[in-house]
Every structure is written in structure tokens, then in C-alpha cells.
Amino acid sequence: MSSASTSFTIESVQCSSLAGLHRVAYKQWGDPANPRVLVCVHGVTRVSDDFDALAQDLASDYRVICPDIVGRGRSGRLALAGLYTVPQYVADMVTLIGRVTNVPGSDGTVAWFGTSMGGLIGMVLASLPDNPIRQLVLNDIGPVIDPGALARIGDYIGQDLRFSSFEEGAQFVRTVSASFGPHSEAQWRKLAADVLRQDNDGTWQRHYDMALAQPFKAATPETAHRDEAALWAAYDAITCPTLLVRGADSDLLSRATVQQMTTRGPRPELVEIPGVGHAPTFMQEDQIAIARRFLLG
Fold first, then answer.
1. Residue 3: CA atoms inside 13 Å, Cβ hemisphere, count?
2. What is the pLDDT of residue 145?
3. On the CB side of 166, how many CA atoms lie within 13 Å of its CA?
4. 8-296: which CATH number, 3.90.76.10, 3.10.310.10, 3.40.50.1820, 3.30.465.10?
């Protein structure tokens, strides 16, 4: 790739968990010496490549860091499936941010764009004292997650499916991702290619650890209630400027939850995107413009 705005490198940082050490890979776009950093974090079964279009657009202003959260894509896997939870992901991101802000001129802070799970990670991190997040974009996520949507996602994650061809796998990804809204044929193909990999036996499968499903399966009404209370407490502690994006047809983030979110905590600016459910991909120019306006003013 020829220019700073369209070039990237694949880097990694070593992180730790109760089960030992693991690598977190990340895509780095733009000038590696730029102290102005934007961290973009994907949804539960997606990967860093989701942000290619957004990163290319913003890489002349930011160094854009797009990690594969552990268990996904180019990153390592955890030895204990029960550790695939937001607290572990937050700890990993603190390590990553320490690495990427270690450049001359950096004040140690970052802007954060989080889609779905990436938004939960950002929400929790932004609630902590002395946290590094100076601007926060929450893409179709809040402290309350619809139980039906959660069950749908948990069931989807745990299916260890094999596809005989890339085309078969791509059709599956397109079907289960229909709520992303309208995309071109090339965009749908990219959305599939980013999360499918070919195994040694020639079959295709999704590029994440199937053990990610275990914490979902272990959830109970009691733990869900506890987690929701903890997320509201985290949300109410956020003080940085925040943008809340909702797919107007989202089954994960309800209008009732959005109404509460806009009147408490960081009192975010709200943008709803028509014709899209969970979650906007920010591959489209009009969606990228929403992020650009908030992050750059």
C-alpha cells in the first residue's frame, strides 16, 4: 500500500491472564509516530478488519489501532474458556494502550470506537478512575442487553460449523449478518472473508475460538441481573464526551434503554441509523461521516 492513509502493519502485544500469557494482535493504520490514537474494537465474533474503511478514512488524522480481541482472528486463544469475559478484555486493552501511547508527544490518552462487545469494553474502561479514554463512541450497545438477542448471539457463537467452500461460508455469514443493513456485493464478500479461514482439510470455518460460547451458556437470570447493575454503575461513572449510535431496527439496544442512557451518565449525543439493526458496520460513507464529525469536530 502506497500512502500513510491506506497503509497498515500487523503488530502484537503480550498480555496475561490467570491461565498464563497470550498474544493480542492488532492492525495499525497511519503514521506510527502519531501520538493521536484511535482504538477501534469489534463485536463478539468479528475481527479487526471490520474497521478497514473507517481506519483508512481517519488515518491521516489518527494512528488507528484495531485489535483482534483474544480468541478471535490473528490473536491467541485462552487456556480457560471462562476467562472470555469483559474484565479480561479490559485488562488486555490497558496493556495495548500502554504500548501504543508510548511515543513522543503522547499524553497517554486515546479515542475509543467500540461496536457491540467493543463498546462494552470501552464502557467499562472509561468508567475507571484515571482511565485513558478521552472520547467514546458506543456503537449499538448499552448497559441493558435484550435477553432474546443475547440468546440468539450465544446460540450463533457456539455452532462449530464447517463449510465445503468459501461461497457456502460467505452465504452463511451474509444470512446471519442481515441485520447489518444494506451492503454491496463486494462489502458482503469482505465481511465474510474477514471472519472465515480455510482449515487443513480444505473446509472453511469461522475464525474464532468456539469456547467463546461457554460464558454465554453459563449465564443465569441472576448473573444477568448482576451484570446489568454493574454495567449501569460503570456507565454512570463515564465523564468523557460520548456518542451513542443505534441501528434503528436493533434488537440488542432498545429505544427504552437509549432513552435512559441519554438522560444519565455521560448524557451522550445520539444518532440513529435507519434501515439498520445490530449493528452498523461503518463501512458506508454516511456512517463514517458520523464518526468523523464526532471524533474530529
1. 8
2. 77
3. 11
4. 3.40.50.1820
